[in-house]
Amino acid sequence: MHLPGNLTFCAQFIAASVIAMTLSCGGGCASTPGNDPIQTPAVTEDTVREAPADKADAPDEAPLPDVTVEPKEERLLRLAVVADMNGSYGTDLYDAEVVKGIDMIIEDKPDIVINAGDMVAGQKPKLDYRKMWKGFHANVTQRLLDAGILMAQAPGNHDASAYPKYAKEREIYIDEWNQRKPALDYVDDSPYPLSYSFMLKGVFFVALDATTLDPLPDETYDWLEKQLANNPSKYRPVVFFHVPLFPITTIKPTEILRDDRLPPLFEKYHVQLVLTGHQQAYFPAKLNGVTYVHSGALGGGPRPVRQNNGIAPKTLTFVNIYPNSEPYIDTRLIAGGKGEHFNHNLLPTYIVFGNKILPRADVSLEDAEFARDYMISPHMTKSQMDALIKALRANGGDWGRIPDWKADK
Fold it and tell me: How far apart are alpha carbons 19 and 62 in whole angstroms?
């Protein structure tokens, strides 16, 4: 998105911040497994049962226009993206938004559902995991199967944490999904169901086992690089996993996948889309040509996005993939809404963490850099600002790598 000038940008930026203040966090923010160190609801019997819905306020109207623009090109396929559907520890019930989200998916009929993990509320001793998985399959897996919609899943830390103390939970996850292996066109399913790759309508997908904060084991990283290097498609690949690479929330922001090898790897092999969960907040970002969609929680405990005054909506994301255009992100407001398209102007234009900037997907790096520069040093001359932006672009948006630059300058 090109912004016509400094004053226009500042006016829009301030207005977006004011709009964000009208939203508040859903009622489940403080009591779900997702708020504990790297750990999320399900239904029993043969019927779908609903737990009480979280309440989240939404604005009556958005004064700023939506910044997302759907390409006119015919799409290759449409994805529904879900994550963090679980609730309180051990429950086999799912929040009303989960049921509503599955209803919307069935009505929309996407080509596939990508599930970025935390399907059950595990990662705690003495829980009935089989009961939780029975609830998940009744609420989600079987409903999608009955509607003829494929779902590809990646493990979450509450499903199959790779930390040794959760080895039994991981074994149950493997057994559950070996029994329910989706009918995909697999390219490499040797590490299934923890990692695997497949083709769908000419697009190459890679599901990755990323359930801890530690760097990927070398074996997993090497497998991933081999998949991307041998992409059998003429289109750019899609990668999905649970723990994200960037801290987008105000709650437990340090819970990220600490593997600096991955962004350069995704750039090298021209990955178009990276889908993650875990931080339980929706934020679409774009960095060095790669779109990163952080899926909002459908289950308990949605979290506020950084710099966003407490906004914590429950959302359901659809993504259209095109032959030549960038992905179109069609996110819908679930909690406090009726499934209407979610206006990205309700999110911050960028997220700052440490010395780095993560721009929103529709905002250029230059615009995000200008916003930070304006707040830090509003009297900087245009030539100084241009020089700073040039240095930032040369250093991947990392302020800390620019000689003599101080954040309090």
Answer: 7
